[in-house]
Specification:
mainly alpha; 2 domains; two-stranded antiparallel sheet; 2 strands; elongated; Probable_transposase_24
């Protein structure tokens, strides 16, 4: 029995379909333009193209806006536009609050990734807007550290730090694989649905042609019979 015919797959597919269609904060469902390409691969390709790491703003727009011939972009949904606008506002406010401060007095400054993760980490531990890449972002973020992080690092045993780092990497890899598997399952469902629709349309078209031919043949037969009856 094929996996996509199993009850487990059907249940996962139905749940994913419901989640993708769900309305969030009254601004509609959350969408993106990545297609079957994982967000991590989008970031890698974008990095190669830019010859540097893309900013949150750049990567988010590249994966949440439709590209047009005139090089302008239109948002895939209201939520996408709303979330980025709020993020840019938070990021600007944070940077303004850091003017005149030093790393020693305020601890290590937060990065733009930290700001995004702080505001977009849901109750399931996932980072909105970046798919599997969100797992990596969450691991990089320092949102759970206090401003005394710089000084507290010196209190760690090197072996303990190495162990924690390895555990963190393994956890990130597992979460990324899980997220990627779910994304691939959703993509597979869409492809299967499209394939079945195509096959159905082809069969329907073939059946229609066959019925049309039978109708024409039947009309000719009836017409011939009528003519013969009239001559008699």
């Amino acid at each position: 029995k094929k996996y996509w015919e199993s009850e487990d797959f059907k249940k996962r597919s139905a749940t994913g379909k419901t989640n993708r269609r769900s309305d969030v904060d009254g601004v509609g469902p959350s969408l993106h333009t990545c297609g079957a390409i994982p967000m991590t691969e989008w970031r890698r390709r974008f990095s190669v193209s830019l010859k540097r790491e893309p900013t949150i703003d750049e990567l988010y727009k590249a994966t949440h806006q439709h590209r047009h011939k005139d090089k302008t972009g239109s948002w895939v949904c209201q939520r996408s536009e709303k979330e980025l606008a709020e993020h840019l506002k938070r990021w600007e406010e944070y940077r303004n609050s850091q003017q005149g401060t030093t790393e020693t007095s305020q601890g290590m400054p937060l990065s733009e990734t930290d700001i995004w993760v702080q505001a977009n980490l849901n109750n399931k531990g996932r980072v909105y807007g970046f798919g599997a890449e969100g797992v990596v972002m969450k691991q990089r973020a320092r949102h759970s550290f206090s401003t005394t992080r710089s000084s507290s690092v010196n209190n760690y045993d090197p072996r303990e730090m190495a162990q924690r780092f390895n555990e963190s990497v393994q956890k990130a890899a597992e979460e990324a694989r899980s997220q990627l598997r779910q994304e691939l399952e959703v993509d597979l469902t869409a492809k299967l649905r499209a394939q079945l629709n195509d096959e159905w349309n082809q069969r329907e078209a073939t059946l229609k042609k066959s019925l049309d031919k039978e109708k024409v043949a039947m009309k000719k037969t009836v017409s011939t019979a009528v003519q013969k009856a009239t001559k008699k």
